[in-house]
Amino acid sequence: MHEMRRFEPPAELAAHANVTADVYAEADADRLAFWEKAAERLSWDTKWDRVLDWDNAPFAQWFVGGKINAAYNCVDRHVEAGNGDKVAYHWVGEPENDTRDITYAELKDLVCQAANALTGLGVKAGDRVAIYMPMIPETVVAMLACARIGAPHTVVFGGFSSTALRDRIQDCDARVVITSDGGYRRGAPAALKPAVDEAVAQCPDVRSVLVVQRTGQDVEWDDSRDVWWDDAVGTASTEHTPEAFDSEHPLYVMYTSGTTGKPKGILHTTGGYLVGTSYTHWSVFDLKPETDIFWTAADIGWVTGHSYIVYGPLANGTTSVMYEGTPDTPHKGRWWEIIQQHKVTILYCAPTAIRTFMKWGSDIPDEFDLSTLRLLGSVGEPINPEAYIWYRETIGGGRCPVMDTWWQTETGQLMISPLPGITAGKPGSAMKALPGIGALVVDDEGNAVQPGSGGYLVLTEPWPAMLRTLWGDDERYQDTYWSRFQGLYFAGDGAKLDEDGDIWLLGRVDDVMNVSGHRLSTTEIESALVSHPKVAEAAVVGANDPDTGQAVNAFVILRESALKDGEKADDALIQELRNHVSKEIGPIAKPKSILVVPELPKTRSGKIMRRLLRDVAEKRDVGDVTTLADSTIMDQIKQGLATGKDDD
Ligand code: PRX
User: Fold this and answer.
1) pLDDT (tens digit, 9 = 90+) per residue, 464-481?
2) What residue's CA is closest to ligand 1, atom 15?
3) Atom of ligand 1 nearest to the CA of 302
4) Rounded mean pLDDT of 501-508?
5) Of all protein residues, whose CA lies closest to atom 13 belonging to ligand 1?
6) Ligand 1: distance of its center to the CA of 636 in Å?
7) C-alpha 493 to ligand 1 mean position (Å)
8) Ligand 1 centre and the CA of 408: distance in Å?
9) Residues of the domain holding 633
10) Which residue of 403, 413, 477, 633 pairs with 276 in a disulfide if CB–CB is 3.0 to 4.6 A?
11) CA–CA separation, 507 vs 524, rounded Å?
């Protein structure tokens, strides 16, 4: 273990940073004036009359009365300002030498064409459009085209199964799906269209599927529904007048896992979201649009991609890198090669990636020139001090500060993070709430804890990019986030304050797991397991894992009919169950291990004691079992009948 270290902010960064230390006092003095100033960085068609309407809390309205077009702010205004030739994306495909640079002027033409094509397909403001795509430029174009015509998009991560896609299309009642034949992954084309065909077969209201050709794979075709992107978008006019939408017009719905089986549709609206993402992108990454090359190494299918590959960076006129594939294709130095080639100055990624690179060894990045990097970011899960220090030293050459940024799909924007040139870095701590954000660590009763103590992370003030509700479920929105502590937003994370009052995130306190920075619900995976005909009951826990942060560990009770006389639960059955979860949710949810057990540990009231299962999964002595209905059960579980191991 490293002792607790503290890195002072580099002086040369401080001298030129976008924000200065007095920003905290400024925001504290008048929070709404602070956000109003941030909003003035954007182009509004009509100015707001009121910064925040919180009268109907927890339902917020930001920049009330303002009208704005998100796509215009992300694209047109940079072209109008004379920056049309500036590169918006250095896009890097997974196959080597498959690259494309897209300027702001080109992006504008593409977005206008796609907006016209969508209109041609009958999409109107307010209609939902599902996007199920690989990491290709058309994905960004599709999102911006939707935003331009006021059609909220719902991007579904390409790694999700057809079942997951179907559920999301149905939940938000999307009428059009944008997809591609596939994308490149681990050196080979991976298909996407078949999953769309399967999903859409059960979504009678989907009238069109727009298909980008990326890999040239054969696809099934339904003439009454399917349209090639090139035919519809490629032939459309590059002229399109953006319409200004109400600041609170829905921009997108992003589904995320909650504590129940049903994913939650997080709703983000236009004005506040764009203010929150663009301001934090500019301040936390000290973004200098003239000189920086910014790279968020995440998938657009997650909120990190929405806020920091698309909306934040584009609103700031940034040149970004966007990479299609995996870090080890065709070799384990791919990321570092991309940084060297494109002279990346800011890298933003997840601790899981960093831990993987650490395992592969420093020799690999050492072969590349990473001297252009000046700032590093981390997101998605707690970063362990070893990974932080390795990142800072080996990738950042000891000169780049690390911004450990805490936020969520729900918050839309960065919330807790150091500020470059201002805040010191402590490996493992996200430090403090950003200016304009109120965060506290509270005890069970909702009282703020003292430095040196732990509790629950809550947010005390509304913020511009906050979720507005859960799609179609205001009640669940209130129950999930605003009912645990009166008047406070409950994030679902445990946290502690150190002696200096800095915040350390400790992971989820609910039934949500974090595997490789991906958010998964224990109950969702349990439901997937019990939907298999051979499974009677299932319990899932997230156990600590040195590589992925947490790993999915499942315990299942088989139906009596599952095994014939004398037959054992063998590896083939375990694989069958793992594949079943993959089919139901997606490969990311596949349990790392499945233990077949005769019983599950339950309290007398029938509640599964996941804590004990976590002890088993983490190979600890099992804790207090006195509340179990049958205390011999843990012994039986430990002599489990079969274990499934991770083979991929
Ligand atoms: O538990 C926290 C963890 O990720 C959760 C949010 O997941 P999601 O909505 O998928 O968004 C991930 C990308 C923003 C949080 O509740 N988390 C996120 N960032 C951090 C983190 N945990 C510790 N430190 C972080 N920097």
Assistant:
1) 999 999 999 999 999 999
2) 408
3) 10
4) 94
5) 380
6) 36
7) 9
8) 5
9) 513-645
10) 413
11) 19
CA 360/CA 506 separation, integer angstroms: 26
Q: Looking at the domain assignment, is residue 606 inside a domain?
A: yes
CA–CA dist 385, 389 (Å, integer): 6
- 136 Cα to the center of ligand 1, angstroms: 25
Please count the CA atoms within 13 angstroms of the CA of 605 that sit on its side-chain side: 1
Ligand 1 centre distance from Cα of residue 405 (Å): 8
Do 454 and 494 form a contact (C-beta atoms < 8 A)?
A: yes
| Residue among 279, 272, 270 at smallest CA distance from 313 | 279
Q: Which of 408, 423, 544 to mutate to test the pocket of ligand 1 (most atoms within 8 A of CB)?
A: 408
Evaluate if residue 2 carries a pLDDT over 60: no
If DSSP codes are grouped into helix, strand and coil, which group holds residue 26? Answer: helix
Q: How many CB atoms within 10 Å of residue 55?
A: 8
Beta bridge partners of residue 540, listed in sequence order: 554
Atom of ligand 1 nearest to the CA of 407: 14
Cα–Cα distance, 409 to 307 (Å, whole number):
9
Q: How many CB atoms lie within 10 A of CB 289?
A: 15
Domain count across the chain = 1
Residues with CB under 6 A from ligand 1: 256, 303-304, 379-382, 404-409, 430, 491-493, 505, 507-508, 514, 519
Residue 69 three-state SS: coil
Q: Is residue 271 part of a domain?
A: no
DSSP 276-295: HHHHHHHHHTT--TTT-EEE
**Residue 620 belongs to a domain with what CATH number?**
3.30.300.30
Distance 441 CA to ligand 1 centre (A): 16
How many whole angstroms from 254 Cα to the centroid of ligand 1? Answer: 15
Q: What is the pLDDT of residues 613-640, one digit of tens each?
A: 998 898 888 777 777 777 788 877 776 5
Ligand 1 geometric centre to CA of 409 (Å) = 8
What spacing in Å lies between the alpha carbon of 157 and ligand 1's midpoint?
Answer: 17
Amino acid at 248: E
Please list, in sequence order, all residues whose beta carbon lies within 8 angstroms of the beta carbon of residue 479, skipping any fewer than 6 positions away: none
DSSP 562: G
The whole-number pLDDT of residue 628 equals 79
441 touches 497 (CB < 8 A):
yes
590 located within any domain: yes
Tell me if the bond preceding 58 is cis, omega within 30° of 0: yes
Q: Whose CA is nearest to atom 24 of ligand 1?
A: 382
Report pLDDT digits (tens) over 201-252: 999 999 999 999 999 999 999 999 999 999 999 999 999 999 999 999 999 9
| Atom of ligand 1 lying closest to residue 519 CA | 10
Nearest C-alpha to atom 8 of ligand 1 is from which residue?
408
* Atom 25 of ligand 1: nearest residue by CA position: 406
Is residue 53 a part of any domain in this protein? Answer: no
Residue (of 177, 179, 202) closest to 190 by Cα position: 179
CA dihedral for 144, 146, 151, 154, sign (positive or negative): negative
